[in-house]
Design a protein that fits this description.
Structural class: mainly alpha
Number of strands: 0
Shape: globular
Strand content: under 5%
Helix content: over 70%
Number of helices: 15
Distance between the termini: 31 Å
Order of helices and strands: HHHHHHHHHHHHHHH
Largest sheet: none
């Protein structure tokens, strides 16, 4: 069901719109968590390290899919808010063409250089072959990743966060079952984990894509819609490319950090792999809510309702902080129990590294979630330069401090300490930019 986000109480509208997005990302992350859980439980600790090692590279591909999602979603929601349905449909078709080309290029590069990328991050020989096998299978499934993300972006632009949630619930449950069956009963090892994800993502993508095309056909528009528009492509790229750069550079930063972590051996790698999955579950959830707030801001921008955008920011902060409290407490109090989901007999180093990682980061979820809400507003309004400044501030601080502190007596614990510093400084910048830009927008009475 399409939903106009420009009417109704902003707090109620955001809660109803964003909570299914939160649920969706929980189930989306179950794909990756299930891979790690099954690999660690039924293949071994080195298999978990291999999945975690490959995961950092897959995030680069996801970054491009995410950029296409955001570019399509923001532009489409702006036309939807302005009730310009013809341009809205053209923006969708243009985004599909651009996404297909991007996906094809990445697949070719991935197939040719997957081994080189693993070598670049100093992947230990013990986990290299499994890492490459998992990564190669993942690359062949990139079209599913791209067009599923594009479909969810379109649903969000139309104010519908429930339909993709239903698809994800079914797909994630199926993925867990297939992971278990392929590894436990068919003895396919790492390949079984990768193929289960490949199949489930494929089915989810096809169903979502068909549904969104049918939804678009039901929306009446004046005149015949063009399949491609260079002007809309320019606007799409103006949002998508910075978003791609943001996510890809974050992924590159994470790869550099992964390389530093690899120097501490497979046990610490396995502990980090478990910890980073749990951390990414939280951060990706907040990022997704931030994306929802981008749709809210973009629809209201298109409708010329600027004061409503500031009300949405306040409601967004309350929403993410309500989610922060239980998640931070769980990670602080029960980190060992959570680690038990990934490893049957973890080594002392794996336990210690993962527990410290979660306990150092968890209190700062309140900080980083505020940044992601502010970023969502900035991106929805098209202030991409400011958005990029805050992203690179966080990234540069985290990577540089991780390298420096890892060489001190803190060892790998120093790497964990880099996260809160980057988050705190970047969050202050994001909120400052949000405040200045939205205040000027409201006073000027225009979207320039």
């Amino acid at each position: 069901m399409n939903k106009d986000l420009t009417i109704g109480d902003p707090a109620k509208v955001l809660w109803k719109f964003c909570l299914p997005l939160f649920g969706s990302i929980i189930f989306q992350q179950l794909y990756n968590i299930a891979d790690s859980l099954i690999a660690g439980k039924f293949v071994g600790e080195y298999a978990l390290a291999a999945v975690g090692n490959s995961y950092e590279i897959t995030l680069i591909f996801i970054a491009f899919a995410f950029g296409c999602n955001i570019g399509c979603s923001v532009i489409t929601s702006r036309y939807f808010g302005a009730k310009d349905y013809s341009s809205m449909k053209t923006s969708v078709y243009t985004a599909m063409i651009a996404s297909a080309v991007t996906c094809l290029v990445l697949m070719v590069l991935g197939i040719l250089f997957s081994g080189s990328m693993l070598t670049l991050i100093d992947t230990p020989i013990d986990v290299f072959s499994d890492s490459k096998l998992y990564l190669d299978i993942y690359i062949w499934g990139l079209p599913f990743v791209f067009f599923y993300n594009l479909s969810t972006g379109i649903f969000s632009a139309l104010g519908d966060s429930k339909t993709p949630f239903y698809f994800l619930v079914a797909s994630s449950i199926a993925n867990i079952i297939m992971d278990y069956a392929f590894v436990r009963y068919l003895n396919l090892g790492i390949a079984g984990v990768a193929y289960a994800t490949f199949i489930c993502q494929g089915i989810s993508c096809i169903v979502s894509f068909i549904t969104v095309l049918r939804r678009l056909r039901k929306i009446e528009s004046a005149g015949k819609c063009k399949l491609f528009d260079s002007g809309i492509l320019k606007h799409f790229l103006g949002i998508a490319v910075p978003s791609m750069l943001q996510q890809s550079f974050i992924s590159i930063g994470n790869i550099i950090i992964q390389r530093v972590i690899n120097g501490f051996g497979p046990n610490v790698m396995a502990g980090y792999s478990a910890g980073v999955k749990l951390n990414n579950l939280v951060i990706t959830s907040f990022t997704t809510i931030g994306n929802g707030i981008s749709n809210f801001a973009s629809q209201n921008f298109g409708a010329g309702k600027y004061k409503r955008i500031k009300e949405g920011f306040k409601a967004g902060i309350k929403l993410v902080w309500c989610l922060c409290l239980p998640l931070a407490l769980i990670y602080l109090i029960f980190p060992k129990a959570l680690l038990g989901f990934f490893l049957t007999n973890p080594s002392p180093d794996a336990i210690r590294s993962s527990v410290l990682y979660l306990r150092i980061l968890a209190p700062f979820y309140f900080v980083v979630s505020s940044k992601l809400v502010a970023d969502g507003i900035l991106r929805g309004l098209g202030y991409m330069k400011e958005f990029m400044v805050t992203t690179f501030t966080d990234l540069i601080l985290r990577v540089s401090l991780a390298i420096i502190l890892s060489k001190t007596m803190l060892g790998y614990v120093g790497i964990w300490c880099a996260w809160p510093v980057g988050w705190t400084i970047a969050s202050a910048l994001s909120i400052m930019y949000y405040s200045v830009k939205t205040t000027k927008l409201v006073k000027s009475g225009n979207g320039a």
